[in-house]
Structures are given as C-alpha cells and as structure tokens.
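Hi V.,

You were right to ask for the full record rather than a summary. Here it is.
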Amino acid sequence: MPRKARSGSSAKRSPSRTPLGGAWTEERIPDGVTLESLVGLTPDPASGFRKYLEFLPDGTTDDATIVISNDRQDRVTLKVVGATSRVSIEAPPGQP
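Predicted structure:
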C-alpha cells in the first residue's frame, strides 16, 4: 500500500538549492561556494586535483570531513562516519 505524504509536506524546491544530476556525473560547485577543507577524501590520480569519497556496495565509506562556505560568510562542516555512512551537518556557533 503506498504511503501518503505527510500533511504540510511540499514537493516544491527551495530556490536556493541546486538539484544534482545523479550518480556518476561530475557536478560543478555554484559560484560563491567554496570547499575550504577536504579531509579523508581520496585523490583522483587521473585528474591530479579532484578528490572523491567512494561509498561501497555495503554502504560504508571512509571517515571524512568537508568544510563548505559561501560568499555570505556562512560555513558548514559535513562529517561522514565511514562505518555507518552517517553524515552530520554542523554550523558554527551563532550561525543558523
């Protein structure tokens, strides 16, 4: 039996978000967004400058920390726990 959508949920997309193209495609980072730090990602030997985080078929990956900022001085840290592939998003204190 199909599940009904929760009341108050919406299929509308936020105008500030860019949908990704899906697996196995390269995505460009929007203007004004900076990857400040990429810890735990694997360098791509074919490109010499790209890095990636590979998720294995069992859902696991390596531990990783990615710090993203934008031109409005917003900053978030994405922390990936490799054993569970759980991703947490942390904003600095005082930032929503």
